[in-house]
């Protein structure tokens, strides 16, 4: 009798956790939110200051490749109303302060 009561209590205790709704998770967005309009204005031949004015500061400038700027965007626990970037991984390559290559991964 005691054993069956213990098993019943344990089963109810474990299943009680599933009765609650899942916890709220805050949507976390990090990086540069880049729109299609900004991408259309981005042209080869622009200076570094023009690109910074258009897109903002890059998320990452590699120490070993200072002429390569990375604009990254990531979103965790996104909801339907969360804004999304049109370029999640944009790499801009400069040569002598002038934009020479655009990679939109």
From TrEMBL:
Asked if Cell cycle is a keyword of the record, the answer is no
Q: What is its main location?
A: membrane
The similarity annotation says: Belongs to the BamE family.
Name-wise, this protein is Outer membrane protein assembly factor BamE
Q: Which UniProt keywords apply?
A: Cell outer membrane, Lipoprotein, Membrane, Palmitate, Signal
Q: What Pfam families does its record include?
A: BamE
Q: Does the entry feature the keyword Cell membrane, yes or no?
A: no
For this UniProt entry, the molecular function terms from Gene Ontology, in alphabetical order, are:
protein-macromolecule adaptor activity
Record-level GO cellular component terms: Bam protein complex
Cite the source lineage. Bacteria, Pseudomonadati, Pseudomonadota, Gammaproteobacteria, Oceanospirillales
Q: Where is the Outer membrane protein assembly factor BamE domain?
A: 31-100
Q: Which Gene3D superfamilies match?
A: 3.30.1450.10
Q: PANTHER family per the record?
A: OUTER MEMBRANE PROTEIN ASSEMBLY FACTOR BAME
Q: Where in the cell is it found?
A: Cell outer membrane
Which GO BP annotation is one of this protein's?
protein insertion into membrane
Annotated signal sequence range: 1-18
Function of the molecule? Part of the outer membrane protein assembly complex, which is involved in assembly and insertion of beta-barrel proteins into the outer membrane.
According to the record's subunit comment, the protein's assembly and interactions are: Part of the Bam complex.
What kind of membrane protein is this, topologically? Lipid-anchor
């Amino acid at each position: 009798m005691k054993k069956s009561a213990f098993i019943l209590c344990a089963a109810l205790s474990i299943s009680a956790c599933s009765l609650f709704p899942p916890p709220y998770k805050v949507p976390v967005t990090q990086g540069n939110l880049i729109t299609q309009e900004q991408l259309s204005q981005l042209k080869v031949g622009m200076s570094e200051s023009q690109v910074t004015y258009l897109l903002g500061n890059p998320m990452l400038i590699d120490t070993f490749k200072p002429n390569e700027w990375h604009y990254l965007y990531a979103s965790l626990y996104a909801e339907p109303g969360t804004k999304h970037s049109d370029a999640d991984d944009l790499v801009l390559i400069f040569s002598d302060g002038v934009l020479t290559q655009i990679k939109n991964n």
